[in-house]
Amino acid sequence: MRKFYLLPCWLLSAPLWAATPEFELVIRDHLFFPSTLEVPAGVKVRLMVDNQDETPEEFESYELNREKVIPGNSRTAIFIGPLKPGEYPFFGEFYPKTAQGRVIAK
Ligand SMILES: [Cu+2]
After folding, report:
1. Which CATH number is associated with domain 18-105?
2. 89 CA distance to ligand 1 centroid (A)?
3. pTM for the whole structure
4. For the chain, how are helix, strand and coil distributed in percent, rounded to 5?
């Protein structure tokens, strides 16, 4: 009888994960670092959001159509794009006065 080998699905998606450009975004003292993030237009990119505060923050952007809570002292991946060239503001819904930034797709 022919044997079937089930490849773990992460093995199949590994090249996809690796091929996606990644950009780091840090939350500290209710501020985003960097506050302006330049990414390539026309491709999907992965934002690794690293919340270094004790408190949770919600990454929110109407223009990017993204909304995600990042618990305190944790990291999460947010996929955006492919974006048309332009500027896409984002903010922290829990600390909107200080947690503000923008993605610039070029
Ligand atoms: Cu929200």
Report:
1. 2.60.40.420
2. 14
3. 0.81
4. 10, 50, 40
